[in-house]
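User: I need a structural model of Oligosaccharide flippase family protein from Hymenobacter ruricola for a docking pre-check later this week. Nothing fancy, just the predicted structure tokens so I can convert them on my end. Input:
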Amino acid sequence: MANFVSPFANAGRFLTNPVFRKAVIGFSGSAAITAAGMLLSPVISRLYRPADYGEYAVFSILLGNLSIVASLNYLGALLLPRRIERFAALAQLTLWLSTLVSIGFLGLLWLFEDHLLSFFDIHRIGGMTYWIPFLLVLSVLASCLQSLCIRENKYSVRAVSDVSANLSGKGYTIAHALWFGPSPGGFILGDVLNRLVAVGVVLARLPRRLLQPLVVPASLRRLFKTVYFFRRFPTQVLPSTYLNIVSSQLPVLLFKKFSTSAEVGAFAFASSMLELPVALIGGALSPVVMREAVQVFHEGGVDRLGQFCGSYFRKIFLALAIPFAAGAILGDLIFPAVFGAQWQTAGAVACLLASYYAFRVNYYIFVSVYTIVHKQLYDLFFNAVLLLARFVAVYLVVQSHGFLAAVGAYSAVSLVLTALNSYVLLAALRVRAWRVAIEQVAYFAGLLAVLHFGRLGLQHFIAKG
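Assistant: Understood. Predicted structure tokens for Oligosaccharide flippase family protein:
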């Protein structure tokens, strides 16, 4: 049974360990992206309407679903191979699969474009859907190159790529609105530029010797051996990952049917803003934790892995609980003040979703550990239950009690099941998960209480004055 020390103990040793040093480089890139997002989002939110963001959200759902299916989620296995030859073969296999799916989707789009636009109610996007096949291949290529950066400890290259791509994409989105006016196309073409820059920067900055294994085509024999070696990965990991993706996209699709495009945009925008801290910490720590966790497991087994994950699990929650608690209490004031009065509904959505996102971060970072200890079926079970619970909550509530009530129901079931999934993972690593759960729930509830009474006191003071 893994034992915990206080999360505030041994702080100096934590700051100097190799995992933290590697994460700091990735964190610097994620921090720059988050800062750019926070600085540019108020500009973008005043140039575009919630309905524009709602249309783009549906476009992103189509692209995300195809990316997962096309790659068979092999992207999540790229950091597992020890030998560079096997890594290169797996990356090339993933690129071949995504290319074939892109060609197939292009044919279906040509034949059934009108039906697709009608089914998802995205007529304003129109011909822009033809960017999906190109973006699919481009995004898979970018993911393969970034995994190569992590494998070769080139975290600085990955950070520069992420920052450059993010700034380029957002810069074009702003320029598109100023030049052509607001439309979903501004977001889509900004996304295209984002992926192009991400690939270009990595290709330009990585040494040729590191790129060579990816450039040399793998033989069919090696590709088939790679398929056989990872034969269980698609069946054990893909269903869980896909269910998780679909369940997160579910409210957008249901709100598109039963609400307005503006409410869909409000939900998508609030979710994207709450996702920024997740991307900031998760984007920096997740690949580092995965790489180090594999090594720790090979050296010390499950007990050592439990100590490693348990320690970081607590520290990360302590760091992120405060801003999410602030979002839960003050989101309805922050959003209209920062992003404009038209995003008042998005502020209310942020208040309802913030508590869920506070517990989502650790799941985002540590879920890949299920693969290391061969417990993927646990995650599959929880994601199947989560999908069903979210569908029932949103579908029933949105028709009887309206949009915001449905968002609250979605957030409640998401919080409970996501947190429970994380604690089951800790228990699988022989960590006292019940103890961690009590500490984190009590800590977050205390933060909410303090901020809530602080807001009431401030409002009373202002009203009295």
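Before docking, keep this in mind: Residues 1-16 have pLDDT under 50 and may be disordered.
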